[in-house]
Amino acid sequence: MRWVLILMAFCAQTVTAICVAEEYDIGEVARILAKLGHALDPYDTDLQDQVIHVSLPVQASTINGKETTWTTGDLFVFPSGTVVAWAIPDNVLSGVVSQTLLPAAKNPLRKYEEEDLEFVEDPNRESSSIKGDRIVLGTKSQTGSLLGEVEAKVSSAMEEDSELTQRRSLDTALAKIAFSSGLARSTKLAVLESLLADYFESTKSIPAELSRGGRMPFSRNFISQKTGQLLGIRAQLNLYSELTDSLPDLFWDSRHELGLEGYYDQVGRALDTNIRIKVLNEKMDYAQEIASVLRQHLSEVHGVRLEWIIIVLIAVEVIFAIRNEVQHYMYSDIGRGVSSQGHFASSERTVNDQ
To answer: What's the rounded Cα separation, in Å, for the pair 61 and 71?
Structure first.
């Protein structure tokens, strides 16, 4: 059993980030997980206002089909609507995001965005880094020897057969939070990239319609929908400051000076986050031009409609005016005719009397 635990430290495992909603109600997340008996912030990072961290028991392996080895996986929930899981199986993670945390999700996404990286724990290193697409977590204690730490972990695991968990130091937990924050940022960015791609797909016929010089066959509802869709994407990009800020608030709130911003930047460089944000902004500018064309078209259509309404009203007014004039002329003619007949009859009576 001891060799299983030691071997696990050097085996590549998976860290998965899933964005499931526009945002999470962190307070509600904390209540849900606490109600299920999970200890919040198990390593006392004092960052529970920025990220919710719990450790989950995970089945590591089965020996000879009889004895099961257990370890712990780490789950980080961010306000951006993203969950980052370290060494947690897909079936467990799926149940957490789609069922357990669903009541705390605001505006859940129809399609989840997911990103994966590999990670290994290196007990011979104090610091952590990213090499290619793999995170190397240094789990060596900065205050004690490696041998003493490993022996303490193995001893604890052997004495507590019911738990069999490998303890992680506070420094390692903070490093995971830093890497998770960068990965959550990338996943949130992927959501906006997907939304913008859908927007371009639905408006790709507009340039062709303009080049033909004909009237664009777009209704007012379509134009309003596309304008609102673009505003929603831009609002998420600008209002969610974690995407555009060089350093998230949680690093400013941390009382631990461990160079966590360096880990955050390493994830950004590995996943080309800053370049993707720049490209996204450029695409947003182009999308804004499309939206401007649509609004101009809507304004023109509305103006033409108003012009026709004014023309029809003027025509109706002219028709009524002509009708009134004709009626007035006809009534005047009839009146003159009646008056003439009356005068002629009066004259006849006067002659007869004479």
So the answer is: 9
Q: CA 242, CA 116: separation in Å to the nearest integer?
A: 20
Q: What is the pLDDT of residues 219-276, one digit of tens each?
A: 778 878 888 888 888 877 776 656 766 667 667 666 555 678 888 889 999 999 889 9
Residue 153: both structure tokens together: 């972990």
Taking only the tens place, the pLDDT of each residue in 96-121 is 999 999 999 998 998 899 999 999 98
Contacts 24+ apart (CB under 8 A), 8-11: 8/60, 8/71, 8/166, 9/120, 9/121, 9/122, 9/123, 9/139, 9/166, 10/120, 10/121, 10/122, 11/120
How do strand 105-122 and strand 134-138 relate by DSSP bridges? Answer: parallel
Residues 6+ apart with CB under 8 A from 114: 16, 17, 18, 19, 187
Here the contacts of 49-52 (C-beta below 8 Å, separation 24 or greater) are: 49/253, 50/78, 50/79, 50/248, 50/249, 50/250, 50/253, 51/76, 51/77, 51/78, 51/177, 51/180, 51/181, 51/250, 52/26, 52/76, 52/77
Contact 8, 60 (CB under 8 A): yes
pLDDT at 352 over 60: no
**In terms of pTM, does the model score above 0.85?**
no
Tens digit of pLDDT for each residue in 137-177?
887 755 444 334 444 444 444 444 333 334 456 888 889 99
- Three-class SS state of 21: strand
pLDDT, tens digit, for every residue of 191-201? 999 999 988 88
Q: What is the dihedral of CA 126, 174, 267, 111, to 10 degrees?
A: 140
